[in-house]
Amino acid sequence: QVQLVESGGGLVQAGGSLRLSCAASGGTLSGYVMGWFRQAPGKEREFVAYISSSGGSTYYADSVTGRFTISRDNAKNTVYLQMNSLKPEDTAVYYCARSRSRFVAFSAHSYAGSYDTWGQGTQVTVSS
Fold it and tell me: Among 5, 23, 25, 106, which residue is least crowded by beta carbons within 10 Å?
């Protein structure tokens, strides 16, 4: 069964950058849409970005558009989230997830229910 492990989180000042990685083991990411979500203390998990199986199409939440970039390297079985111009409100635990099926509509991947495999999360803290 595939397992996802996020890394790259940490403490950064506002305006700084971080690059998150999500590495898979025990299975493949190829052929699946991959997404990033985040959850701040006391808040529900929210969508951040997703990427098509080929990497050719991406979609972002309005709050991160223009600042975050999702990408993938299928040969390395890894998905990335480049985060620039970070703001204190980006502070959260960031999770990567694999789509529950190759047949789920691409446009449905802003919903957590479209995914069935999640990583344990990596903490991102942005100080003001």
Answer: 25
